[in-house]
Write a structure and sequence with these properties.
By secondary structure, the protein is of the alpha/beta class. 47% of the residues lie in helices and 12% in strands.
């Protein structure tokens, strides 16, 4: 049972502590609050905790049973309690010959076999041995999926894609026909491979888009050999085959959607990037797994990241967090984290079904730097709400990087959030710039920055397959730790279901010619207007 007593006492005592003052108060702060793991360097020294609050957060993790929960995850126990499933995404990136078990069943040999099949198929496609119906090699892939079947592979492709890819990879997730139209524009059915990704092969949006893609292929290809253009990735291979997929790559139900990019869900990326790139990404994630399992809590990167968030959310009542990757290749990271964290930990009941009495997952949002600096950074610097920031910094983003590096902006933003600028400093600057006393007095408060706003920096030398894998695994384990502390199930997602059910009912009303008597007045009126 999580013991919040010391945590709450620390929050009450240290709520107004100035971050900048803590460096003098705790000479060991930098060594205490920085950690290196799997090619990443984390600096949490600009977080809003004192030394004693930091220790209270560690005690909170111990009392919540983080270490035991970690062992249950890697041991393949049913930590997804509402669905009675293991959660074993670490097994997907373990080295060949590992020995993972899901609910007692050995699974590593199957993982190795699927990974080998993916590599063999990808190699055949990339080399031109595997061709389409007319004998032409594949030059493009259209990846059809949504949620975890889309966001994970999409962030991987954007992060690692070459400037001139050998095989073009396009993604379709939105059921709006415009999304599919954009993806298919300029493509030739003879050289296009469609990969349909759905865990259950019942997802409405994915199947609707897959039907459009199938019709597009049928209009441009002979029937013989056409099925070679249509591949399924699923935990329900029978349904994929019935839908028309000539070949399927399977994964098991212990692979959660938002944790599935390590599986056959990323088949499109394996083909487009090459098996060696994918294997290197798996190795980077496995290195973070090893760190998470072996490092003590006070030097454990995912644990410290989680504690910083819990401290901000539950200790200091800060219900939002922004993530700013200072690398264009990581532009999809905030969207990926929105699903990973908010779908996992946006819960209102404990694991036993009782209502939560504290806040859980914050709102996660973000944009790449420096784009965000010209948008919402205004609010995080001078708005009345304190929004903790996370800067993901890549030292060398491109071979032709300019002399003034991108990361200098990230360092400046973190420093500015912490230090701020007093009204007196603003007034003095205005006077020094030539403003008269009245003008300086009028503008000084507008140019005041409260400061004392926390941030975390995650630094890597380059964005490589290994560091990308480590980064994504870091956030996965962070999400687990937070769920354990909040005593919620991070691995179900019932919140996405109700809207799906009601959408099907509305479609039935549409087919019937109008609103049914079961609709509320507002929804009925909107349906009538849209018909």
């Amino acid at each position: 049972m999580t013991n919040w007593t010391a945590f709450d006492a620390a929050a009450a005592r240290d709520a107004d502590a100035r971050i900048v003052d803590q460096f003098a108060a705790d000479p060991d702060r930098m060594s205490r609050m920085t950690v290196e793991a799997a090619g990443l360097y984390l600096d949490l020294s600009k977080q809003s905790w004192t030394k004693s609050a930091f220790e209270a957060c560690l005690d909170l993790a111990r009392s919540a049973g983080v270490e035991a929960a970690r062992a249950r995850l890697f041991g393949g126990e049913a930590i997804n309690s509402t669905e009675g499933r293991a959660v074993l995404h670490p097994a997907l990136r373990a080295a060949t010959g590992a020995d993972f078990h899901a609910l007692g069943e050995a699974v590593s040999a199957e993982v190795d076999a699927v990974r080998a099949d993916m590599a063999a198929y990808a190699t055949a496609v990339r080399s031109g041995v595997e061709t389409g119906a007319t004998g032409k090699p594949f030059k493009a892939i259209v990846h059809v999926g949504i949620g975890g079947s889309d966001l994970g592979p999409r962030v991987v492709w954007d992060a690692l894609r070459p400037l001139e890819p050998k095989i073009d990879l396009r993604f379709v997730a939105n059921i709006d026909p415009r999304d599919m139209a954009e993806a298919l524009t300029g493509l030739d059915p003879e050289t296009t491979l469609v990969v349909v990704v759905s865990k259950t092969f019942t997802t409405q949006e994915t199947l609707a888009n897959a039907e459009v893609a199938k019709a597009w292929l049928a209009a441009g290809l002979p029937e013989t050999g056409r099925d070679r253009h249509f591949i399924g990735v699923t935990a329900a291979p029978d349904k994929a085959a019935a839908f028309g997929c000539a070949r399927t790559f399977a994964f098991r139900d212990w692979v959660g959607g938002r944790y599935s990019l390590w599986s056959a869900v990323s088949l499109s990326c394996v083909i487009a990037l090459g098996p060696d790139v994918f294997e290197a990404m798996l190795a980077g994630a496995a290195a973070m797994d090893d760190h998470f399992v072996s490092a003590p809590l006070h030097k454990n990167a995912p644990v410290l990241m989680a504690l910083a968030q819990v401290w901000n959310v539950d200790g200091l009542n800060r219900p939002a967090r922004t993530v700013a990757p200072y690398a264009h290749a990581l532009r999809r990271l905030p969207s990926f984290l929105q699903q990973l964290e908010m779908e996992s930990n946006g819960k209102r009941v404990h694991r036993d079904g009782s209502p939560v009495t504290r806040q859980t997952c914050p709102v996660v949002f973000g944009e790449p730097g420096t784009n965000g600096q010209h948008a919402f950074f205004q609010q995080i610097h001078q708005g009345p709400q304190v929004v903790p920031a996370e800067f993901v910094i890549v030292a060398k983003t491109h071979a032709d990087a300019p002399e003034s590096p991108l990361w200098s902006n990230a360092l400046a933003q973190g420093q500015a959030l912490m230090l701020g600028k007093t009204t007196g400093e603003a007034r003095a600057e205005l006077l020094a710039s030539g403003a008269d006393a009245a003008e300086a007095e009028r503008l000084a408060t507008h140019k005041t920055f409260p400061g004392n706003r926390p941030s975390t920096a995650i630094v890597m030398e380059r964005l490589t397959p290994e560091t990308l894998g480590a980064l994504l695994a870091l956030y996965e384990h962070k999400t687990l730790v937070e769920g354990v502390i909040w005593d919620i199930n991070s691995f179900d997602q019932w919140g996405v279901e109700l809207g799906k059910v009601l959408a099907k009912a509305i479609l039935k009303d549409l087919a019937a010619g109008g609103p049914s008597g079961t609709l509320d007045p507002s929804t009925a009126s909107l349906l009538a207007r849209l018909m």
